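new request in #modeling-help
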Amino acid sequence: MPTAVNETDAVTSEHSEPAVPASRPPTLQDVADRAGFSRALVSIVIRGVPGASEATRQRVLEVADQLGYRPDGRARLLAAGRSKLIGVTLGLDNPFHSDVAEGIYQAAEASGYQVVLSAVTASRTAQQAVETLLGYRCEAAVLVGPLVPVASLLALTERLPVVVVGQSARSRAADVVRVPAAVGLGLAVDHLVSLGHRRITHVDGGRAPGAVERRTGFTSAMRRHGLAGTATIVRGGGDEEAGAAAARELVDGGLPTAVITYNDACAVGLLDMFVRLGVTVPGDVSVVGYDDSKVARLSYLRLTTVSQDGRRLAAVAVERLIERLDRQPDGRRATSELKREVLVPPRLVVRATTAAVRQPG
Amino acid sequence: MPTAVNETDAVTSEHSEPAVPASRPPTLQDVADRAGFSRALVSIVIRGVPGASEATRQRVLEVADQLGYRPDGRARLLAAGRSKLIGVTLGLDNPFHSDVAEGIYQAAEASGYQVVLSAVTASRTAQQAVETLLGYRCEAAVLVGPLVPVASLLALTERLPVVVVGQSARSRAADVVRVPAAVGLGLAVDHLVSLGHRRITHVDGGRAPGAVERRTGFTSAMRRHGLAGTATIVRGGGDEEAGAAAARELVDGGLPTAVITYNDACAVGLLDMFVRLGVTVPGDVSVVGYDDSKVARLSYLRLTTVSQDGRRLAAVAVERLIERLDRQPDGRRATSELKREVLVPPRLVVRATTAAVRQPG
DNA sequence: TTGAAAGCGCTAACAA
DNA sequence: TTGTTAGCGCTTTCAA
C-alpha cells in the first residue's frame, strides 16, 4: 500500500520557479501586452462583441489561447455590474433534483447565463445554501425541492427574482414552476379505474414534501369516479422503507386491487415486500408510482408511474427568470410584479405493474 | 388550474420604486456611511480580524445586519488576491458523490474555505465543469468520481492543486484520495470464507469506474485463500439492471454459495431477481454489496456491504489541499511537489444477506 | 484604533 | 477600429 511520500520539513524553498512557469493565471493585461493591443480591445475580442477587426481578433485569440487565458468571472461581474449568474439550491441525492439541475444548466447556458450550485445537505441548511448564493451575487435563483423555509424565501425574493421548482411555495412571494400533483394522481386513478379497479389504496408520503397535495389529489379523483367509499389511504413516506412497511400492512389488513404510492422509491419498497410475501404484481395487485425515476424503468420492475418532466420544469423556470431579468435589467427586485405559478402537466407512463382487475368490485 | 397572470405588454413603467426600496445590494460603503466609519474599518470588522474596538465592532455589525449587508464574494477575491474557494466537480445522481460533497462542504467551511459545485451531467462534460471552476478562480479543486479525462486533468493540475477522490487517476499529476478497492473485496472474501463459503462469484462492474480494481481484488483475495479454482466472475455493471441480469445467469448456470457484487445498486437488482426466482438469501446464497449506500440499510434488505466512507475521503482531500495552499500561498502550482496517494481503508458492514454456507464446498 | 489611497481584473462609456 | 479613462466592491499597506 503506497505510503505518504515525505514532503514535510522546512522546504520553505529559495528555489526559483522551476520547470513550468505559470504561477499566476494570465490576465487580460497579459494578453494585451503580448498581443500589442489595449486591454479594452482585447476585452472586446474575448467577449465576442463587434468592434475589432478580423486580423486583431485572430491575433488576440491566438495569444489568449497560447497563454491559456481564461476570463475571471468575478472581475467580470464587478466591472459589468451584473453577473449573468443563476444560483441553484438543491438536494444532492435526489434524482428528480438532478434532472432539474441538468435542465437548468442547459437552459441557462443556452441563454448566456452561468449556473452556480449550492447544495442543501444534512449538515448544510437551505438558509446557508441561500446565503452562499447571495454572496456570489447571483442575479436570480432557482430553488429546487422542499428546501427553503418561508422566512428565508421571503428575504430572498426581496433581493432577486426567485423561482421555486417542483413544489408549491408556502408563500406567494416567488414564482413557482411545478407539476400539479393532483392531476398526476388523477391520471393514475383514471388509468386504474379504466382497468376496472375500484378498491384503490394510496400509500401516502406522510410528511414528505408535496405529500398533502398528492393525497388530496387522490381523494378527489376517487370521489370524481364515485369511489370515495372504496378509497383508502395508508401512511407511507418517501423511501423504500416506507413502501415496504405499507406492503406489510396491506397484506395483513386485506389487499386492495390497486395501490398508488407517493413516489417511485416507495413503490420499489412496496413491490419488493410484495414479492417476498408472495403477492404478485400485477396479478394480485396493480401498482402505480410517481416520478418516473430511473428505477421505474428497470426491466425487472417496469413500474407504471406518473412522470414529472424535470428538464421541462427547469427550462420553464429559467425562461421565467430571464424574462424578469431582461425587464428589470438592474437585476434586482421586480417589486410590483405579480408572482406567477406555472403548471407543467404530468404524464402517465404505463409499464408492467398495472393490469385489468381480476375480480372487479 | 391557475393560469398565467397577464403581465406582458408595454409595462415599461415610469413608476418609481414602490413599496420595498432596496434595488442594489448594500455595499461596504453603505455600511460605512451609515455607521460613520471608514470602509477599511468596516472591512476589518466584517472579516473579524483584530484592529477595531469592541464598540466599533458592535456598531458596525448592527448596521450591517440592519442593512442586510453581505460581502461580495467576487470583489473580495479580486481585492484579496485569493478566493478561498475550493471547486468541486461531481456527478449529481450518485449517492457516493453526494456523500463526498457533503464532507467537502463541512471540511472546507471549517477551514474558512468556500465551496463551489460544478456538475457533470449527461449534457455537461467534465471538461466544461472544470472550465467553470477555473473561471471562478478556485484555488484548488476536488474531482469526485470517474469524471475527468487525463488531458484536462493534466491541464488542470498545472494551474492549481487538484485532488481526485474516489478512484485512481490515470495519471500521477494529481493527488488521489481513495479507498483501496482490493482491500474492500478482500474484506468481503475473508468474511465469506470465514462463513465456510468456497464457491464465490463476483458480479463485476463491467466497464464502470473502478471495476477493474475490484475485479482483480476479488481474484487475488480468492487466490490468497487457495480458492482460485472455485472463484468465478460474471459480467455485471453499476446498476440494478445489471444485477438482475446476473442473477438470471447465475440461476441458469448453477448458483455459487455466495456472490459479491460491484456495488450496492447491482446487489439490489440481484437480490430482487433472486427473490422472484425463488432463490432465498442468505439461505441459498449469500450476497455482499459495495458502497454501503442508503439502500443497503433498508430494513427489508439489510445488505452486507463494503463501506467507503465518503465523508472521511472528503475530509482528507480537503486537508491535503489546504496543506498545499498554505505552503504555496499564491495558490498556484506546487510544481516540484510529489503527488501523493492517500488510501482510506474500507470497512465491512455485516448485515443480513450473508450467513454460514449450508453445504460447505 | 482609525482613515486615506492604491489597486485586484475586468467592462463600459467615450474620444481619437 | 482602436485606446483612454473611470470605476465595480473589496482588501491592504501605510500614516495619522
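bot summary: The longest strand of chain A covers residues 85-91.
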